[in-house]
TrEMBL record:
GN (gene name): MBTD1
Localization (cell): Nucleus
GO CC terms, sorted: nucleus
Bias kind Low complexity: ranges: 565-576
Pfam families attached to this UniProt entry: MBT (PF02820), zf-FCS_1 (PF21319)
SUPFAM superfamilies for the chain: Tudor/PWWP/MBT
Region annotated Disordered, chain positions: 1-32, 563-593
Upper classification of the organism: Eukaryota, Metazoa, Chordata, Craniata, Vertebrata
Keywords, comma-separated and alphabetical: Chromatin regulator, Metal-binding, Nucleus, Repeat, Transcription, Transcription regulation, Zinc, Zinc-finger
Biological processes, Gene Ontology terms: chromatin organization; negative regulation of DNA-templated transcription
Designated name of the protein: MBT domain-containing protein 1 isoform X6
Entry GO MF terms: chromatin binding; histone binding; zinc ion binding
């Protein structure tokens, strides 16, 4: 394991230079300008600077690439435009002296350079604006660092094992603090890439705070990196690959026998599995491919589905383009395990509304996605007691995911699917109904919000406040859906209040943002987007494929939205004020109802007793939502 170190040190680097020659930095050509660390520019032997500025449009570039012997212009058009402007100035000067009207030729000369100049100037301004936008976006993203964000605030991130759908979510193993890895040594002046041993000081999702061996309690050179990156290896990889192990320059003087030091430090220590990188690669292989056709919810009419085509796949997330979109801009983002996508023919098989495409045949290269690739739903028995049209329940509003509302089952479909509408805000034609499966964690029995101290949104226009289910059911002549028909499973998900993660903004599903778990009710998580007001929070299931570990965006190459700044929030002030006004008119209701009160107001004749949720910090264990009261 230490052969690599024995063959290379900062004093004897030449012995390994041949092995690492492909990683050496080739010297830059002498005819290119080189910028020093202090910002000064090297000059040519003749004393001329290697950079030049176009006298026509102001563009800055490499001097050798400029036009003409004098290197005054960036292109032929700029040179000609400058020349034409000079002629124009000469003509105008003569006119001022002679007072004679300009000739036809003079008019042409006067007009043409102006057009060329304006065009060149407009193009130059557009280039500057694009560069400014690109730079601003880069600064916004590069300015955010998960490591700095977590360190400066002592945050804790949700472990990778909480996300079964994410890469390595099911095979993360016991990677934890004090695990040793081999990483590139950045505290080194050798011309080749060398490595050293580091230990994990802190884990935050995929990201780890590492400290080089030999620094003991000195955190001066600690650094964050993604454990799943290609530069992180298990101990022993360097020896097997013939790579040199070199101690950091800062501590090179501390020991004379580094081999003995490593043997002592690494005896009994844990490291990554030998096939860790292979597992990472395998877990990032996705069965969905571009050109596959699926049925997906119509984002403008939730009551129906449409055919869409997979445009791209990033980390298991699909960019779907609706098949009728001619310019390929009418798209929808979701995860491949999302309950919103289905195989072709699904809508017809269960009786769901479907918008038929105007395209009579498949486009070249497009093909139907195999049905087995979609997420499976739990089989249910609809032959016995089952949901019926008109039954009342509580449901997360898909158009406002921060609220749980009074809702009604409007239609019972096949295979356990239900069409649900939000009371008080439904369209007459049912165009705003939405589909949930009977086992969906987004629907709840009557009384769920009251017993778990969650704000229940009453029907719009309902005036008898505070809202009481017993009165409302009697007034509407309705019955509540039986408690036993709802999903009662609560997995041991591992989330805790305050944990950081990366979460999809489901109201704008192409965005993935820095987020925090702020409440836990059984399997239900309250997700807060850092930097935004609470009204933008969303209720999400603990097994939602729209939640990801810290570092997922970096691993997959997806763009992460950093916490909103004050300016970003102010830009949304108009819509925010409208939302706040609407929210202030909603009744928040009593925060708690005793079990005795609830039993006295039993709605459906069933003698069920809610199991009240544990505290937010402790409600992550395996349990049932509800328990039947024994006679």
């Amino acid at each position: 394991m230490f052969d690599g170190y024995d063959s290379c040190s900062e004093d004897t680097s030449s012995s390994s230079s041949s092995e690492e020659s492909e990683e050496e930095v080739a010297p830059l050509p002498s005819n290119l300008p080189i910028i020093k660390n202090n910002g000064q520019v090297y000059t040519y032997p003749d004393g001329k600077s290697g950079m030049a500025t176009c006298e026509m449009c102001g563009m800055v570039g490499v001097r050798d690439a400029f036009y003409s012997k004098t290197k005054r212009f960036c292109s032929v058009s700029c040179s000609r435009s400058y020349s034409s402007n000079s002629k124009k100035a000469s003509i105008l000067a003569r006119l001022q002296v002679t007072g004679k009207p300009p000739t036809k030729k003079a008019k042409v000369l006067q007009k043409q350079p102006l057009v060329a100049k304006l065009a060149a100037y407009a193009q130059y301004q557009a280039t500057l604006q694009n560069q400014a936008k690109t730079k601003a976006a880069a600064v916004s993203m590069e300015g955010f660092s998960w490591g700095n964000y977590i360190n400066s605030n002592s945050f804790i991130a949700a472990p990778v094992t909480c996300f079964k759908h994410a890469p390595m979510g099911t095979c993360w193993g016991d990677i934890s603090e004090n695990v040793r890895v081999e990483v590139p040594n950045t505290d080194c002046s050798l011309p080749t890439k060398v490595f050293w041993i580091a230990g994990i000081v802190k884990l935050a999702g995929y990201n780890a705070l590492l400290r080089y061996e030999g620094f003991e309690n000195d955190s001066g050179l600690d650094f964050w990196c993604n454990i799943c990156s290609s530069d992180i290896h298990p101990v022993g990889w360097c020896a097997a690959s013939g790579k040199p192990l070199v101690p950091p320059r800062t501590i090179q003087h501390k020991y004379t026998n580094w081999k003995a030091f490593l043997v002592k430090r690494l005896t009994g220590a844990k490291t990554l599995p030998p096939d860790f990188s292979q597992k990472v690669s395998e877990s990032m292989q996705y069965p969905f491919k571009p050109c596959m056709r699926v049925e997906v919810v119509d984002k403008r009419h939730l009551c129906r589905t449409r055919v869409a085509v997979v445009e791209s796949v990033i980390g298991g997330r699909l960019r779907l383009v609706y098949e009728e979109s001619e310019d390929r801009t009418d798209d929808f983002w979701c995860h491949m395990h999302s309950p919103l996508i289905h195989h072709i023919g699904w809508s017809r098989s269960i009786g769901h509304r479907f918008k038929r495409s105007d395209i009579t045949k498949k486009q070249d290269g497009h093909f139907d996605t195999p049905p087995h690739l979609f997420a499976k739903v739990k089989e249910v028995d609809q032959s016995g007691e089952w949901f019926k049209e008109g039954m009342k329940l509580e449901a997360i509003d898909p158009l406002n995911l921060s609220t749980i509302c009074v809702a009604t089952i409007r239609k019972v479909l096949a295979d356990g699917f239900l069409m649900i509408g939000i009371d008080g805000s439904e369209a007459a034609d049912g165009s705003d109904w939405f589909c949930y499966h009977a086992t969906s964690p987004s629907i709840f029995p009557v009384g769920f919000c009251e017993i778990n101290m969650i704000e229940l949104t009453p029907p719009r226009g309902y005036t008898k406040l505070p809202f009481k289910w017993f009165d409302y059911l009697r007034e509407t002549g309705s019955i509540a859906a039986p408690v036993k028909l709802f999903n009662k499973d609560v997995p041991n998900h591992g989330f805790r209040v305050g944990m950081k993660l990366e979460a999809v903004d489901l109201m704008e599903p192409r965005l993935i943002c820095v987020a925090t778990v702020t409440r836990i009710i059984h399997r239900l998580l309250r997700i807060h987007f850092d930097g935004w007001e609470e009204e933008y929070d969303q209720w999400v299931d603990c097994e939602s494929p729209d939640l990801y570990p810290v570092g997922w965006c970096q691993l997959t190459g997806y763009q992460l939205q950093p916490p909103a700044s004050q300016s970003s929030r102010e830009s949304q002030s108009g819509s925010s004020k409208q939302k706040k006004k609407a929210k202030s008119q909603q009744y928040k209701g009593h925060k708690k109802m005793t079990t005795l009160q609830l039993k006295e107001e039993l709605i459906d004749g069933e003698d069920y007793n809610f199991l009240q949720g544990a505290s937010d910090q402790e409600s992550n264990g395996s349990a049932n939502f509800y328990i039947k009261q024994e006679p």
